[in-house]
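Thread: quick sanity check before group meeting

JM: Hey all, I'm pulling together slides for Thursday and realized we never actually wrote out the predicted structure for the chain we discussed last week. Dropping the sequence here so it's in one place. If anyone has concerns about the input, flag it before I start.
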Amino acid sequence: MKKNSFQIIKSSGEKADFSITKLRSSLYRSGADELTVDNIINVVRDELYQGISTKEIYNRAFALLKKSKSIYASKYKLKKAIYELGPTGFPFEKFIGALMKHSGYKVEVGKILKGKCVSHEVDVIAIKNKQHIVAECKFHSEKSTTCNIKVPLYINSRYRDIVTHYTKTPSCPNEGWVVTNTRFTTDAITYGKCAGLYLLSWDYPKDNGLKDRIDRLGLYPITVSTLLTNREKQFLLSREIVLCRQLLNDTFFLDHLGISETRKKMILSEISMLCNSN
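JM (edit): ok, ran it. Output follows.
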């Protein structure tokens, strides 16, 4: 049996053919050089077996990247790091708000806006020039969960209610966004286009999804760190430190955690390299 004919099990439980091309692409996104990528692929390929899970493949590749260089591992775990912003959706809302703020928008998170019929709590409001965005964030803690058509249908009704109330006022929103950390179904995307909603997910729109924006801007969530413990990450998130870049400006939070100077320097070095890697 050929190596490329191995069947793997995805997080959704579906079977798929193992793709070296996809693995290579994900490894290159970490910033790893060609020799490192080739070495990891050779190791992983030799350890494949029928029915291996994508999680097992990921864990092996992650461990090898971390052994090579921690910054590679940090960038490689980006998708997992977004899930680690849970279990509630609030840190994800703060993260999206921070992305927008660092893209030049004036941002408010969790604000109440009036609608024609009822008031609505809006996850993220972002304003820049004549662009006035009302964004709703749908965070899913399960990787197998997709964002189906019910989500944009519901959000569009809320957005239209808000727009109707603010029509003919300077503060009237002109863009409704739906943001998710997972993927949209085909029907959800079709409806979004038809209804005039902007959909943003892990990999949509193509070349401008969350993963692309994060890499391009160097705005990584604090959860990508391979040196911080889960307890330390949760402490930082509770203090609204959602971006690695924020920790570089507020290093005193590490002192609150009782982190030694030696370890503190290692953490800040990792984060600094990550933020400036692009």
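AS: nice. The chain has three domains: 3-73, 90-217, 220-275. DSSP finds 13 helices and eight strands in the chain.
JM: adding both to the slides.
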